[in-house]
Amino acid sequence: MDIAVIGAGNVGRSLTTAFRRAGHVVTIASSDPADSGAVAIATGARAAVSNLDAVRAADIVVLAIPFGSAAESLAREIAPAIAGKIVVDVTNPLNPTYDGLLTAGGPSAAEQFAAWLPGARVVKAFNTLFASVQADPIVDGVQLDAFVAGDDDVARTTILDLARSIGFRAMSVGPLARARELEAVAFLGIALQGTLGNTWHTAWKIVGVPAGVLEQAA
Ligand SMILES: NC(=O)c1ccc[n+]([C@@H]2O[C@H](COP(=O)([O-])OP(=O)(O)OC[C@H]3O[C@@H](n4cnc5c(N)ncnc54)[C@H](OP(=O)(O)O)[C@@H]3O)[C@@H](O)[C@H]2O)c1
Prior knowledge:
Blueprint: E1 2-6, H1 10-21, E2 25-29, H2 33-43, E3 46-47, H3 51-56, E4 60-63, H4 67-78, E5 86-89, H5 109-116, E6 121-125, H6 131-134, E7 138-139, E8 142-143, E9 145-150, H7 153-165, E10 169-174, H8 179-191, H9 213-216
Parallel strand pairs: 1-2, 1-4, 2-3, 4-5, 5-6, 9-10
Antiparallel strand pairs: 6-9, 7-8
Helix pairs in contact: 1-2
The protein binds NADP nicotinamide-adenine-dinucleotide phosphate.
């Protein structure tokens, strides 16, 4: 798959590492070209000269940027090149004090991206997985779950396949509206870090799923 990753922080680096390891073609962009350049050198990705350059090169665009400070302006920037592309929203829209979600009681970050990016096929994925496990999907001997929400069936199936290709058990959770719950689940994982030892290496896993069910639930 041809993938653009926007953002070269914890998530951009981990997902680019995982995608490249699985043989995907990745173009990475960031507000600081030194950061995207460093990730590109470390992973074999291409460093884009701009966010738009990265988007134009790809079929799948992964948004790995802070939501509150960057999302709407980034959406405006990439909107001219986004029609028909799959946009994967990995963000967790934390409030400025990190003790809640900016989106509480309203549309999720993913639904807001869908409104800002008409023509894009927006999917929520990977946001419940800490960066520490995004390129390392086995924890305590358990294969982690990647939850995927989206309204476009082909886009959702494509991202389920992408998640499987980098080692996760992939699970469709339904339409993009389910991103509200995915963002809440991710926030709970963040809020629990103090209780769970501050490893940032814990993860959510659904157990008890009968064999074969997930393959039918794309
Ligand atoms: N960290 C995790 O474990 C984790 C897990 C799941 C989801 N998430 C979510 O994923 C997103 C990224 O998290 P992170 O930990 O990777 O954050 P991070 O380490 O702060 O990285 C964010 C990256 O986005 C870049 N950026 C900011 N505005 C940009 C713009 N307009 N255009 C291009 N690049 C821009 C930043 O560049 P500068 O540094 O130059 O500003 C930085 O490279 C957040 O929404 C977070 O909630 C994080």
